[in-house]
Amino acid sequence: MGPGMKFVICDDEALYRQLLHEKILQDAFRYDYEAEIVAYGSGKELVEAVSKGDSADVFFLDIQMEGESDDGIKAARELRRMGINGLIVYITSFIDYVQTGYEVKAFRYLLKSQIAEKLPRVLEDIRQELTDKDYFFHTGGERIRVDRRRILYLESVRRQLHLITTDKEYYYYGGLDQAQRELGEGFLRCHRSYLINMEQIRKVSAVEIVLETGSRVPISRSYAKEVKRRLILAGF
After folding, report:
1. DSSP 65
2. 47-73 tens-digit pLDDT
3. CA–CA gap between residue 210 and residue 187 (Å, rounded)
4. Taking the chain, what is the end-to-end CA distance rounded to the nearest angstrom?
């Protein structure tokens, strides 16, 4: 599936460092990719290594470590301050920390009690995010390729889809259900007629989502509960 990925695990409990290490290696073997894994026992140790030039594609950060309040949160802030754009997955024993990922745009949120059950899906999302960057569709007899990271949202208009990116707009025949399946977990259905890129979210209210460009997309009542659930799991 192309080049490998580098993972960082930062947790003060050796049990969870080992569990994550084993599960990532199993996933790499199953899906045939190279996985380099580095583990740290504290956020301070991680930040020091990154300041010396180390980095990774994915950071699994324990939110709360012994002796250091909100250690994973502080580490994430430092990573972003240093310009590190790797995916951040917060891991924790406590559901109370569910809102902590917003400012660093955490990719996912994982409870330690659910690692065995939920980590495979998180790793699937990571593989898709890091390896499947392009979205393809046909319009005007042409096959168009769009970097899905640049997609803001899609709107269903009669039998057509209106796809809006950060710099262009397209119309093509298709259904929103199919587009949602092809674009994957990084996209959120917030309305029967709208599908948004979660990476482009700036803020959320009860009735609408504001994207980084200032575009406003409605949240319909029938999708509100699922939108709230997905945003919580993503750390918003």
Report:
1. B
2. 999 999 888 999 999 987 766 555 788
3. 14
4. 30
170 φ, ψ (degrees, to nearest 5): -135, 150
What's at 129, amino acid-wise?
E
How many Å is the maximal CA-CA distance in the chain?
61
Q: How many CB atoms lie within 10 A of CB 228?
A: 14
Q: Please tell me the pTM assigned to this model.
A: 0.59
The Cα 125–Cα 131 span in angstroms is 10
Helices marked H in 60-146? 71-81, 115-131
Q: Given the structure tokens 């955490």, which residue do they identify?
A: 106
Extract the tokens encoding 29: 């073997």
Distance CA 187, CA 120 (A): 18
| Residue 27 CB contacts under 8 Å (≥ 6 apart), including other chains | 35, 120, 123
CA distance 43 to 68: 9
| Angle between helices 115-131 and 14-31 in degrees, nearest 10 | 50
